[in-house]
Amino acid sequence: MPVAMELSRIIITETSPQQVIFLKETGGERTFPIVIGISEALAIDRRLKGVAMPRPMTHDLLAQVIEAMGGRLERILITDLRDHTFIATLVISQNGRTLKIDARPSDAIALGVAFATPILVADHVLEEVTKESFDLEAQKEALQAKRAELAEQIGEIKERLEDPVFLSASDQDEQQALREQMSQFQSDLETIEEILRKLP
Question: Disulfide-capable partner of 174 in 38, 107, 138, 170 (CB 3.0 to 4.6 Å)?
Fold first, then answer.
């Protein structure tokens, strides 16, 4: 029986090719990370925030094509896990029939996030990624790299905020923006630390 999940967090570091999204069980505690590319991460973030672009980007275009052909994205299914790669399916209704399209989870979520499309994960996949014996080496390495990047960025911001030259040359708005950015980085770092503690 598929388990309802929700996109609980997206962590973007634009200097890294690998980004991380987290899916959390709706009404439950189970959660797991998916490592995705920077373009998909930015697309998810942009569509989640409703940021309009002058011309349709890839996922905007696909959404428009589905709509123009009388279709509706009903749900996103993450159906399998093969060699540490998640397999997803787009379930589209069109004129009384159901279409199932193979997709990467990152593309599927980028497409569906703007419409709050339900995300379902096969029970056996969720059990595998949350049990202690599951090998999450690829995800762990990406999270550890992300942790190091965030820690470095936090350190750089702290140095700037403690630099008398910067403080005298910048205004309050610029300093506050840096503090807010550092706060976000610290929050992201705490999330990664929590996930890493739960991994075997």
Answer: 170
Residue-by-residue pLDDT tens, the chain, 200 positions: 889 999 988 888 766 677 888 899 999 888 888 888 888 888 898 888 888 888 888 888 898 999 999 999 999 999 998 877 899 999 999 989 999 999 999 999 999 988 889 999 999 998 888 764 444 566 677 778 888 888 888 898 898 888 888 888 888 888 888 888 888 888 888 878 877 776 55
Q: How far apart are CA 105 and CA 73, in angstroms?
A: 14
Which residue segment(s) compose the domain that 80 sits in? Answer: 3-130
Same domain, 20 and 118: yes
145 CB contacts (<8 Å, ≥6 apart)? 16, 18
Q: Which of 105, 130, 155 is the last residue of a domain?
A: 130
HEC string of 113-161?
HHHCCCEEECHHHHHHHHCCCCCCHHHHHHHHHHHHHHHHHHHHHHHHH
- Give Cα 143 to chain centroid, integer Å: 13
Q: How many domains does the chain have?
A: 2
